[in-house]
Amino acid sequence: MLQYKTKTNCSISYFFSLLTAFLIFSCASSPSVNPGDEAFKKKDYSTAIAEYSESLKTNPNDFDLLFGRGRAKQELGNLEEAQLDFEQALYQDPNNFQVLLSLSIIQLDQKSYASALLYASKAEQISGAPAMASLLKGRALHYLGMPDEALKAYENAIQVDRNFGQAYFSRGLLKVALKREKDACEDFKLAAALEYPGGKEMLQKYCN
Fold first, then answer.
1. For residue 131, what is the DSSP state?
2. pLDDT band with cut points at 50, 70 and 90 for residue 32
3. Selection from 96, 163, 172, 169 nearest residue 133 by Cα
4. How far apart are CA 168 and CA 189, in angstroms?
5. pLDDT at 9 > cutoff 90
6. How confident is the model at residue 16 (pLDDT cuts 50, 70, 90)?
7. CA distance 181 to 161
């Protein structure tokens, strides 16, 4: 596996926060609003879990309830419990890229990179999947020590969304690890222009 600098580890924390934000604001498959949804919006995750659990007593296979409870548990750091909810939600809707991305995030956080790659790759193949799917795939490949494949995944993310600052930033970090600082500078310039956190810092560190 390629070795990375401390800055990379810092970016990973921000990486997960952005992914969580993406999932929070993504549309659910149902327009109905559960009390758990309201609690989640208020960041009262414990109450959200309780509300979702109560509703699940009468609707144990409801995708939105399982997914919502999983997100709330994920926010509280209960990753194993969140994973169980996401897996049950995936069973109800095997082609839902939101839950696939959620599972990929958890696997990345737990350093289960092969599993993260599996979930992200499946999400990437679904019509309408966001650039985040390719970014997650690239991150998993990055950590599995498959730089060429990771670069392709980051490039795919950029093709889906040309304004995805995080994809430029991640690709730049990989190029630094590959001793391709000149190429990395182009990515850091774009990340900085898109105001992605850390872009300007990496630009100053490697491109002056």
1. H
2. low
3. 96
4. 9
5. no
6. low
7. 24
Report d(CA 118, CA 137) in Å as an integer.
8
Q: 3-class SS at 32?
A: coil
Distance CA 35, CA 6 (A): 41
Lowest mean pLDDT among 3-7, 38-42, 128-132, 178-182: 3-7
Amino acid at 152: K
Amino acid residing at 61: N
Q: Enter the DSSP assignment of 33.
A: -
Count helices and strands (H / E) in the chain: 12, 0
In total, the chain counts a number of residues equal to 208
More confident residue, 15 or 135: 135
- The tokens for 13 are 């924390």
pLDDT of residue 183: 95
Q: What's residue 37's pLDDT?
A: 95
Distance of alpha carbon 199 from the chain centroid = 19
Nearest to 28 by CA among 59, 53, 65, 82: 65
Instruction: Give the relative orientation of helices 181-193 and 165-177 as an angle to the nearest 10 degrees.
Output: 160
